[in-house]
Amino acid sequence: MGRLVVVSNRIADPRKTAAGGLAVALAEVLNNTGGLWFGWSGKIVDHSEDDDVHIQQAGPVKLAMVDLSKVDHDAFYLGYSNGVLWPVFHYRLDLADFDAGYITGYRRVNQLFARKLAPLLRSDDIIWVHDYHLIPLAAELRALGCNQRIGFFLHIPLPPPLILAAIPGHDWLIRALFAYDLVGFQSKADHSHFCEYIETEAHAQDMGDGRWRAFNRTVQAGAFPIGIDVAEFNALTEAPEGREMYERMRREYSRRKLLVGVDRLDYSKGLPQRMRAFREVLQRYPEARNSATLIQIASPSREDVSAYSDILHELESLCGSINGNFGELDWMPVRYMHRTVARARLPGLFRASRVALVTPLRDGMNLVAKEFIASQDPENPGVLVLSRFAGAAEQMREALLVNPYDIEGTASAIQLALQMPVEERRVRYEALMKTLRRFDVHWWCDSFLESLAKAKAEETGTPWLRL
Length: 467
Ligand code: GDG
Description:
- By secondary structure, the protein is an alpha/beta fold.
- The chain has helices spanning 21-33, 70-89, 100-117, 137-143, 161-164, 170-177, 188-202, 230-238, 240-252, 271-284, 306-326, 346-351, 367-374, 407-419, 422-438, 441-454; strands at residues 4-10, 35-45, 54-58, 61-69, 126-130, 149-153, 182-185, 205-208, 211-214, 217-223, 257-264, 292-299, 334-337, 355-358, 383-387, 400-402, 458-459.
- The protein contains 16 helices and 17 strands.
- Strands 1, 2, 3, 4, 5, 6, 7, 8, 9, 10 and 17 form an 11-stranded mixed β-sheet that branches. It has a 6-stranded parallel β-sheet with strand order 13-12-11-14-15-16, with helices on both faces.
- Helix 10 (271-284) packs parallel to helix 11.
- The chain binds GDP-alpha-D-glucose.
- GDP-alpha-D-glucose is lined by residues 20-22, 155-156, 226, 262, 264, 297, 299, 340-343, 346, 363-368, 371.
- Residues 20-22, 155-156, 226, 262, 264, 297, 299, 340-343, 346, 363-368, 371 line the site of GDP-alpha-D-glucose.
């Protein structure tokens, strides 16, 4: 295999594992294989066009970063990526802002990325592009003559064709995916939405074995559910900070059962619905009063996008009213923090909790569900209450699966989780751990890269349509 080149909107120093999710998963692969990681520096400057690419060596990995101008950042990142693609791909057409200027900014930044990346590439590089910010990147690289193998992985869901079709220019977006050799999704559901879309809207031909022909190209597509590094989570749980956190929480809550939620403060995570379900538990099951405490960490995220401040206010007001209505002098039902907690502390917090509430309205995968299970004490494990609308629900069948829109149904599941006997908790935990170990982050990287190595797209006849 040639050198691995990872491209994502944000990049992180692979020597530091402070960030979560995607950054940690990618740092893993790059640290193991060496290679190049290309992306936005996180800096907004007056003029990005003539700026050089900033290169930094991070151990075995070379980091290459470009700055963005304010105009580009506003249209590409805030506008199209987070104002159109994020809400629509999470089925929230009501929150999308289809400003016509955004798509040109989106395309301009993808072209900028392609122009800055192309000179850094070697002919035998394998290029792995990540997420919704960069859907047209391969098409722009191909337009510059790059023939390397290029794979794309979508970390967020792909909605059904009729929802996707609400985006002006949806056909352009999906056609751009055909410039890749391999297109990967989180779940079978997302993959099947892709197949349905290209069959009905683009009259793609099914070539078998996950291969599809359209726009004079044959590409490979499949589901590659992302996993976590189970060993890393075990090590963090056993490390001094993890243990200290666990012991502190156990001491502090020795008379109570802890429930935990850890999410970026995002409208896709179903936080208000979760609070309402917890309030329903307190209302319906008096035994939960004074004995169950929900710790909700909502780490700040995309605060410059307006839909996020609405969700913040809704959540704050719900937490305030639950505590106001049910709290006692010596017990508050909800501990809500709008802050990021150090990664080293999360496993201890998870292990000290009897129940995790992972109830997104829609989620590509959801790594918190997996991290919670990986942190548990095998002898006395906690219970995962998981939304059926998280990609993780396809794999984690032994969790208590809920419909987060159904407040009463979710409340019943929370109560069941709080009361579940240890034997049943162990059976569920063991089954979940088996899946987590088998489909961990290494499996995800290896299976995607192996498929990419085999999946060279065929171009037939006339050159495929350029954007
Ligand atoms: C996208 C997709 C997909 C959260 N709060 C804190 C914190 N976190 C960490 C978690 C976890 C990560 O951030 C969040 O990952 P998720 O998977 O839950 O969600 P997204 O951020 O929306 O990620 C998602 C993922 O990409 C990967 O493909 O699963 O569906 O939306 O690792 O632990 N970490 C720390 N403090 C916090 O307060 N340190």
